[in-house]
Structures are given as structure tokens and as C-alpha cells.
Specification:
By secondary structure, the protein is α/β, with parallel strands linked by helices. Helices cover about 45% and strands about 15% of the residues. Helix 1 crosses helix 2, helix 2 crosses helix 3 and helix 3 crosses helix 4. About 35% of the residues are buried. The mean pLDDT is about 95.
């Protein structure tokens, strides 16, 4: 069956963390604002909101997301505090596209439909990845799918939006656990991106070291 669409992972595939401030520093910020929060509980609450509340409650904006975070920590801050918290948290983790992402995704987009599958909120990557996203036809994140990756509903939603069957799609990602196991079980072909981590997986059609290799590998996977 001919390949008609490519689904991309975000973190580790198209983007990386250029700068990250830890939860210890962020908890100090909250304590300076009058909230008795330390880094372990802050990290636990953040992960709960990101992977459970965000998809189920569809927390689309930074303000709503961080208000829910503070609720999980037992506080209901005024709007002016939420604005500061959202701004500081967004500044704390700077995302950037990999150098090979824009050109490779652009080349893929010339021949295939494209989608992005990620749990991460759109507001976290919309601006830093704007040039890459020009070549992504559909973005399916946690709030839009209503689930966190690797729930199969996220990949099925990508297929629905792309208008293709599993056999007509390829998933490209860097994690066997998040980007291969479930798509493979659905009948989606998978390509593993190993950026020097030494990752291996027997379920993939191919493994690549750079997205620059992707257009050629996709062409090889097409039936003759």
C-alpha cells in the first residue's frame, strides 16, 4: 500500500529543550509570591496537569493551564498572579527546532500529507516552531485528542484528520515506547530517529540518524 501521510513526533524529533529552569527555581518563585510550594510537589502537580487534566479538561490557554496547576497545589491565585506564573513558567523552558527539521519536513510535505502528534500544549511550541509548522497539515495535541500520548486515540485522530488508513501512514519519532509500539499495533509503519542515543527497535521499517535521511527512506518504502 502506497504511503500517503507522515506523522511526526515533537520532542526529540522536531524540537529540543534549548534552555530549562528546574522545578526548584520555579518553586522558589511561587514561595516568593506567598505560596508554600516546594519542588517535588510542584513537579508532581505539573505532570498530573500535563498528562491527565490538560487532555481531559482541554486546557488550551496558558492561563487556564497554570490556574489548574495552582488548584492541584491547593491554591486559587488572583488573575494577576496567574499571569505572572504563566509568564515565568513559559520562560523557564525554551524549545527550539532541530537544525534538520525545517528543511526535512518541508521536503516531506511536497509529496505527503503531514501531521504532528504530541501531548504538549500548542502554546508551548507554536511560536518557536512556527517555521516548521508551516509544513504540518494537522497538529494533534493532548487537548485536541483528549488523551496523552501514546494512547491510540491520538494516532487514530491523526489518521482521521489526514484521511488515510493505517497502512498509508508512517510515524516518525525517537522513542520506541511513545512513537513505535502503539502505532505499530495499529498497522502504521514506523521510522525510528536515533540522534546518537543508541536506540534500537525491531518493529520499525527503518532507523535514521537525521531527518535529512527521511525523504530518501520514505521513497524506498513506497511499493514498486
Amino acid at each position: 500500500m502506497a504511503i500517503r501521510a507522515v506523522i511526526f513526533d515533537l520532542m526529540g524529533t522536531l524540537a529540543y529543550r534549548k534552555r530549562r529552569v528546574g522545578f526548584k527555581r520555579l518553586s522558589e518563585l511561587l514561595r516568593n509570591m506567598g505560596y508554600d510550594v516546594y519542588h517535588q510537589e510542584l513537579e508532581a502537580a505539573y505532570r498530573y496537569v500535563l498528562f491527565i487534566d490538560y487532555p481531559k479538561l482541554r486546557l488550551e490557554s496558558p492561563e487556564v493551564f497554570y490556574r489548574q496547576l495552582m488548584l492541584r497545589l491547593g491554591y486559587q491565585p488572583p488573575s494577576r498572579h496567574i499571569e505572572v506564573i504563566a509568564e515565568r513558567f513559559e520562560e523557564a523552558e525554551e524549545l527550539a527546532p532541530y537544525p534538520d527539521a525545517e528543511e526535512a519536513v518541508g521536503q516531506v510535505h511536497l509529496r505527503y500529507k503531514t501531521a504532528l502528534a504530541t501531548t504538549i500544549p500548542r502554546f508551548r511550541f507554536q511560536k518557536p516552531l512556527s517555521r516548521v509548522l508551516r509544513y504540518i497539515d494537522h497538529v494533534v495535541n493532548g487537548a485536541e485528542a483528549g488523551v496523552a500520548k501514546p494512547n491510540p486515540k491520538m494516532f487514530l485522530e491523526c489518521l482521521r484528520r489526514l484521511g488515510v488508513s493505517p497502512g498509508e501512514a508512517v510515524m516518525v519519532g525517537d522513542s520506541p515506547d511513545l512513537d513505535v509500539d502503539v502505532p505499530y499495533s495499529l498497522g502504521i509503519k514506523c521510522i525510528l530517529l536515533d540522534r546518537g542515543q543508541g536506540v534500537v527497535c525491531a518493529k520499525v521499517e527503518a532507523a535514521i540518524a537525521s531527518l535529512k535521511e527521511l525523504p530518501h527512506v520514505l521513497a524506498q518504502l513506497q511499493p514498486s
